User: Fold this.
Amino acid sequence: MKKKVLSVLLTSAMVMSMAACGSTDAATDTTAATDTTATTDTTVQADTTETEPAVVSELTDGKFAETRHITVEVYDRGNDGGSDPTNNMYTEYIKKGMLEDHNVEVEFVAVPRWTEVDEINNLLAAGTAPDICVTYSYPTIQTYAGMGGVLDMKDYVKDYESELTHLWSWLGEANIYWDQDINDGTLWAIEGKRANPRRILTFIRQDWLDALNLKAPTTKAEFYDTICAFRDNADTLLGKDAKKMVPFSVSYDVGWRAALLIESEISPSITDKEYYVNGFDDRKLTENGTKEAIRTLNKWYNEGLLWKDFALYGSGDATEDDMMKAGYVGAFQHNWDYPFRNGDDSIQANLKRLVGDNAKYVAVDCFENSAGQTLKFGISEAGDRKIFFPSTNDEPLASMLYLDWISDPEHIEYLQKGDEGVTHNVLPDGAIEIIAAEGDAIMNSGQNIDYTITCNGLHFSDDALTSLSMAHSYAGVDPADVETAIKLSMTNPRYEKNVKVAPISAEDGMGEALSSKRDVVYDTALAASADAFDATWDSAIADYLSSGGQAIIDERTSAWEAVYGSSESLPE
Amino acid sequence: MSAKEKKVKAPKQKVNWKVYIKRYWQLYALLLLPMVYLLIFKYIPMKYILIAFKKYSIVKPIGEMPWAANHGMQYFIQAFSNNDFKNALRNTVVLNLLDLVIGFPIPIIFALILNELPFRKFKKTVQTIAYMPHFLSWVIIYGLAIQLFTPTNGLINMFIERMGGEAIHFLDDPVKWVGTYIFLGVWQSFGWNSIVYLAAIAGISPELYEAASVDGANRFEKMWHITLPGIRGTIVTLLVMALGNILGSGFDRPFALQNNLVMKYAEVISTFVYKHGIKGLQFSLTTAVGLFQSVVGVFFLLFANWLARKLGERGIW
Assistant:
């Protein structure tokens, strides 16, 4: 009888745990929220001090009386044999400099580069985001700003202007106010500057061209013939590995990895308005010629010119890079300096080691549009990383000083070239040649851009030296190859213009949902059978539009019309 | 049964529950620990279910967040007008049902076969090998799957091509992907899930088998008339629990195995919640989805339990 009561209790405990099991998903959804609400109290306190006008007086000679502490985000690229991104020669340099110049202690927080948005989301939601955050995704910032999770930088850049000379002179009004809200003047983020606004290029195996007695392609048609020739001569080029050949490699991120092909199908007469209205997706999914470009890719895919397994490897997976390094890939499109990055571990260096001395990728420029121009879209000094302060930042002044410090051309120069004999040599003509470094001195990112958050691209204090050194800034890479890439990546640039309209509320929270959907559209259409291409593309696009894409296009149209009226182009 | 119940009932009216507590307080004290755990980690966080009905903000406490439109139902309406959600709901149910239909009987069959094995050492070895995949994370299993199943370099496909066949898109053709998904799931868990059946089989009295042997029953008849009925209660209990989870799904398995080409069939509720909630910052929407999932799960559980009792089993309470 006692047993009965006990078993009732035990079973009721079990029932409760069952019910609880059923609701774990709801519970886990909210755990992130739990954490944040716990930290909100401290956050709100931080806000209260933000608009005191006389804050600058906290500083004597640019220094705080008491040591302040700030945390700064730094990307962790997970490079093989790289240095610890939060503790190496360069972080020491920054920490020491900030402490001496401003009496501010700096602590770095590593965020994985390839999942940066997820990670920043988690950190923000948990209230533990670094004081200075960096991301490529403005929608993320905007969404958190909408929830009150981001500090408005408008007053800081203005009130502290006298302390921020380097920042102002480097970024200028254009980049600082790029993202300012035209209605209420709020400024959630400032745009880092591209010292080198180059974007994307096509690379092709020079040694394969030579082996087959082919000239570098200069048109789309020639490019197609070239990759066909690679495929047809796989036995000659790769011998027993012939089956592993990928004549033209495109990853799951088709919109980026075939960007030049996609952009070559965009009508040359596209207006600023049309370009902007369809511009939410940075992979140009809804621009006017994209479908035709993907039709071409689909044809290539079905002809065995592309990588069959492309969709199985996600973001940040190194399989494709490894294939390039091993010499199986004939051509690809990527960042304009992609094969040169990472010193000893660069694609170019590996190729040389694994395949042979003459094996290398060279840049070609062969995706012409209907007007015969090889346009390079999206060339802009803005549009790089965006810097913002989460509302948990209680050291806005110290953080602004950090941005100023890191924008000082001398500091940028040191971070980009390091020490002589360790990370660079000085050539007879004075040019700086970057050499492969070891241990603590390894730069995890090209030119250390992960530390120079306001600057992407080579930028020495002397402009002449910069251009002289550019071709020498990739350790172990033939400067002539870099020079070709430098030249070809800026033929026919189409500069990105800043469209200043009200924030688009339909974009709130849609960034991730739509960009993953965009990849699904691209990938499924690319891999469809030729006769199913139209149906696949049309239904996938319809799904994209009905899931929020159309709402954004419509709101962008009306936002444009509210500011620029019936004009189709931006005022000069 | 009924006689026994009467016996229990009679003294129950006399003895106060406090007596039990006093007499068995050590046992109740032991029970307290899990109760506290449940309270802190399962019940108190439930107040955040409110997020489903409010406009979420990371900086405001839950009480101060404004109510969502449409009497707080905005996000439920939004979820059910969202094609992706409907799609994820369908996939979750279909994949879980397939898992149930295919994956549920296999551990039982495995346990029965294992039980019939006369060689102890061999039995133990087989058992250990069968358990092992359970300890692999899904990320590793996906890594294995890539090595085995990719169209160009997968071992199986290379073999098929050597034999003159054509590569099969196990991982990037939606229908075949479903097959791979179910297969990998079963492979990973059947050994582990058979443990509980083996335990139940071990609990069957050997006398029953002896008696059956005397009566001239063969092996198969013993299995059918003694072993299976002997573990019927266990089977039903596990089935009830599996049914309660029909809308739930682990996160790692679909997330690790899915790719863009199969997303149409591979997106399930848990990955939808991750994508739109954690990555897309739509916390209110995804809390609404999670809540819906849990409520439906509870109904399934209640229904399955009711069914079990109808069928004359004990159910889970």
Observations:
- Chain B touches chain A through 73 residues (CB under 8 Å).
- Chain B has a mean pLDDT of 88.
- The two ends of chain B are 17 Å apart (CA to CA).
- Residues 263 and 301 of chain B are 29 Å apart (CA to CA).
